[in-house]
Design a protein that fits this description.
Subcellular location: Cytoplasm
EC number: 2.7.1.24
CATH class: Alpha Beta
Structural class: alpha/beta
GO molecular function: ATP binding; dephospho-CoA kinase activity
Low-confidence stretches: none
Number of domains: 1
CATH topology: Rossmann fold
Catalytic activity: 3'-dephospho-CoA + ATP = ADP + CoA + H(+)
Radius of gyration: 18 Å
Family: Belongs to the CoaE family.
CATH architecture: 3-Layer(aba) Sandwich
Length: 211
């Protein structure tokens, strides 16, 4: 079995409130390497001076405070302005994907992990799915997701619904998934699902070579 980047790569995605980050934290606890695309994007947006200029051109000087990304300011805009959201993604996604692929190659060379997990909200939307061996989609009942986000972000139901409208239809993501996790239950149920997948990926990672 041949992997796309010399090592087994798995994407984890899902809409807001689905629990995809919790899934990735469990993978980390078990010893997996996890790359968080959102953290990587933030670092690139703060360190790449050329990119910063382009972002300021779209969002204005308020996009940064003391050189640091003004995340809430930008988030408030992109969740209500599809054009600016698309412009930002067209700038950031290619840079993030290049960085992740570079990391894949480094890990494959060093043989430091059996497989790599990438947590990213926009795997399908950015076309990054073509660079991954498997994709896990995490989802939950809509009311469960709304409650989670309202509690986590201290925001209104209307704000959550507006943010959900800007994302890909969860049903479409489920159709595109290689593996689907329904996350309506308690935390231990989710942890056990991740433990099973961790063991499965360890086995798959050994199937490299001529097979």
């Amino acid at each position: 079995m041949q992997f796309k980047h010399g090592i087994l790569t798995i994407g984890v995605t899902g809409g807001i409130g689905s629990g995809k980050t919790t899934v990735c934290r469990f993978f980390e606890e078990l010893g997996a390497k996890v790359i968080y695309a959102d953290d990587l994007a933030k670092r690139i947006m703060e360190e790449d001076e050329n990119l910063k200029k382009k972002i300021k051109k779209i969002f204005g000087e308020e996009a940064y405070i003391g050189g640091k990304l003004n995340r809430k300011f930008i988030a408030d805009i992109i969740f209500s302005d599809e054009t600016k959201k698309s412009k930002l993604e067209s700038l950031v996604h290619p840079a993030v994907i290049r960085e992740i692929i570079s990391e894949f190659k480094k890990i494959a060379r060093e043989k430091s992990y059996d497989f790599v997990i990438v947590e990213a909200a926009l795997i399908f939307e950015s076309g990054f799915d073509s660079e991954l061996d498997y994709i896990i989609v995490v989802d939950a009942d809509e009311e469960v997701k709304i409650k989670r986000i309202m509690e986590r972000d201290n925001c209104s139901r209307e704000e959550v619904l507006n943010r959900m409208k800007m994302q890909m239809d969860p049903a479409k993501k489920r159709e595109l998934a290689d593996i689907f996790i329904q996350n309506d239950g308690d935390i231990e149920t989710l942890r056990n699902k991740v433990k099973f997948l961790y063991s499965l990926f360890q086995k798959i990672s050994k199937l490299t070579g001529d097979s």
